[in-house]
Amino acid sequence: MAGLVHAADVVAFVLVLGGAFGIISGTGAIDRGLLALSRGLSGRGIYVIPVMLPLMSLGGSTFGMSEEIIALYPVVIALMFKLGFDSMTAVLILFLGTQAGYIGATINPFSVLLAQGIASIEGNPQLGLRIFVWLAFTVLAVAYTMWYAARVRRDPTLSPVFRSDQALKRKFAGDLEQTLKFSARDRAILATFVLALLLIAWGLITRGWYMAEISAIFLATGLAAAVLARMSANDSAGYFVDGCRDFIYAAFVIGLARGILVVAEQGMIIDPILDTLGQGLQNLPTFAFTTLTLVVHNLITFLVPSSSGEAALTMPIFAPLADIFGVSRDSMVLSYQMGNGLTNLISPTNGILLAGLSIAGINFAQWLRVALPFFAVGWFLAAAFLAISASL
Questions:
Q1: Distance between CA 379 and CA 381 in Å, rounded?
Q2: Most buried among 2, 101, 345, 389, by the most CB within 10 A?
Q3: Nearest to 245 by CA among 78, 58, 33, 15
Q4: What is the separation, in whole angstroms, between the first and last Cα of the chain?
Q5: Interaxial angle between packed helices 127-154 and 49-62, expressed in degrees from 0 to 180 and rounded to the nearest 10
Q6: In the chain, count of helices (H) and strands (E)?
Q7: Per-residue pLDDT of the chain (392 residues; tens, 9 = 90+)
Q8: Torsions phi, psi of 284, nearest 5?
Q9: pTM, whole model, 2 decimals?
């Protein structure tokens, strides 16, 4: 209970944002917008990838798009088949796209902002670097996916899912036509949402806004979406509660993790741990220290795939450890977000990944064959960015 009390502001932040996103998602505007984009680009072949994947990445980077992609798999898989690609290309666009956004998260409230709040970091001091990290990983994801898709279209037998796709093509044959119209009301809802994101970015950079202001903006955006969608008060409240429900687990994990910290502090355990770690690491070069933190987050993510759960578990230790080592606390947040995002690309405990693979009829071993090369390149890129972050 003490942990929940100490983390009350962060728990409230998560629940309010979850409720607001519940209303926005409940309008269906985001799903219909993405589906309309898929249909509009269906005649442009390979150029679907550099349009759709960055949008997925932007969603992951800004508002934590993750579970929302599950509903898009049938349509995007059908679109890939129509363009001569395979189901793996659809998974790369949707899942790799959103994970690239998580790796390079800029104002994602469920990873960056949450971790900064736990680490007592005001504003978003390395937002400029985060934007550059997001661009780098998004470009890498687009290039890798286009290379893979072009290779498979030239010779479909090179696809690791060539055989399983034969049955899948019949299953998803009509899905691309069975989609709802993207209306003017949907455009207004999405425009309101984009304006809210721009306002948040402006407030973070110029006004030092944080959890209270961001929560208020998202709540207002959710209410505006409900008005534009002509939802009833009961429906709006229902979607808000559903959104909160989706994040109750994360909220309790945050409270429980903070409870562990309370016990450790009151039991005078935390200081000896930090002192021991500080003495053991003090002779390490900065690059070695930041790389080591990345490895630790890679390992922890296998046990705690949730970005919010890992932030609550690790930031109370890593933030003061950064002070002892003389590096920016925000570099530890960057280490956590990149370690979590990268490992979730290949983690068998990531439910969102497994759900997408199940819909596409892809087994985990087939996914690893495609994902591991990106993970390897991305890991070294992340280590380099961490060294830059620690020097700022």
A1: 5
A2: 101
A3: 15
A4: 38
A5: 150
A6: 20, 0
A7: 555 666 676 677 778 877 887 888 788 787 777 677 666 765 566 888 998 899 899 989 987 877 767 767 877 887 788 788 999 999 999 999 999 999 999 988 888 988 998 888 888 889 999 999 999 999 999 999 999 999 999 999 999 998 888 888 776 655 555 556 778 888 898 889 888 878 877 887 677 676 778 788 888 998 999 999 889 989 889 889 887 876 676 666 666 656 655 655 565 555 555 555 555 566 678 888 899 899 989 988 888 788 887 888 788 888 888 888 888 999 999 999 999 999 999 988 887 888 888 878 899 999 999 999 999 999 999 999 999 999 88
A8: -75, 140
A9: 0.77
Output DSSP code: residue 347.
-
Identity of the amino acid at 172:
F
Amino acid code (one letter) for 21: F
| 3-state SS assignment for residue 214 | helix
Which residue type does 355 have?
Answer: A
Q: DSSP letter for 110, please.
A: T
C-alpha 129/C-alpha 121 separation (Å) is 16
